[in-house]
Amino acid sequence: MLLEQNQQTTIESTIATLPVMEAFYTLQGEGAHTGRAAYFIRLGGCDVGCFWCDVKESWDVNAHPKLSIQSIVDGALEYPGRMAVITGGEPLMHDLTELTVALQKAGFQTNIETSGVCKAVTGSWDWICFSPKKFKAPNPDIYNKANELKVIIYNQSDFAFAESFVPHLRPDCRLFLQTEWGRSNEMLPRIVEYVKDHPQWQISLQTHKYMDIP
Ligand code: SF4
């Protein structure tokens, strides 16, 4: 009986699972891939603590069903788009190697949106959107891996925060400034002027919110 229990434990522990808060097919609304069809996989768990976070329900890693890698990939395969966006929460709280390898084997482009707060940047990525937050420092390991820097502008000091990362990034890293949604009225005109004066930056709009889609 003890042997059977041990065998069962071993079998279960080899089946990788991840906590999935939600997964849905929509258009990427932000950043470099704006407008493209994408399957979003929102993983549970985040300890960054942004006070303006609009997905606070993602923070508790134990509040979401743990799904097998295969079932996550099967869910993505139900739709014709072949771009998968792993988001959170803070997805790099988890080892994403198995998920990304499985998605790529199934024909998906693997994109991630991350604050970079992690012990290690795990996973096989086609596109890394690095979105650092003031509330917790990122692991510098992400600097030379990021394809895109996207900084949320909540107040004026966030422009300097955004600039502080640029010297550490690859020369081809795309640079985006995006207003925090609730502060659009005040910050959007400032971002427009900033981009006009600093044309290495682009504005990123949360176009999915304007379109009223997920
Ligand atoms: S890193 Fe993202 S999910 Fe985590 S608190 Fe900040 S905005 Fe929310």
Draw up the topology in text.
Elements: H1 2-13, E1 17-27, E2 37-43, E3 66-68, H2 69-77, E4 83-87, H3 97-105, E5 109-114, E6 127-130, E7 148-153, H4 157-163, E8 174-179, H5 184-197, E9 202-203, H6 207-211
Parallel strand pairs: 2-4, 4-5, 5-6, 6-7, 7-8, 8-9
Antiparallel strand pairs: 1-2, 1-3
Helix pairs in contact: 2-3
The structure holds iron/sulfur cluster.
Iron/sulfur cluster is lined by residues 46, 48-50, 53, 55, 58, 88-90, 115, 133.
Physical arrangement of strands within the biggest beta sheet = 3-1-2-4-5-6-7-8-9
What proportion of the residues is helical, as a percent range?
25-40%
Examine the secondary-structure arrangement and name the CATH architecture.
Answer: Alpha-Beta Barrel
Look at the structure and give the mean pLDDT: 93
Which stretches are poorly predicted, pLDDT < 50 over at least 5 residues?
Answer: 1-13
**SSE topology string:** HEEEHEHEEEHEHEH
Small molecules bound: iron/sulfur cluster
CATH topology: TIM Barrel
What is the gyration radius calculated from CA atoms?
18 Å
Pfam family, one: Radical_SAM
Binding site for [4Fe-4S] cluster: 46, 50, 53
Protein name: 7-carboxy-7-deazaguanine synthase
Pathway: Purine metabolism; 7-cyano-7-deazaguanine biosynthesis
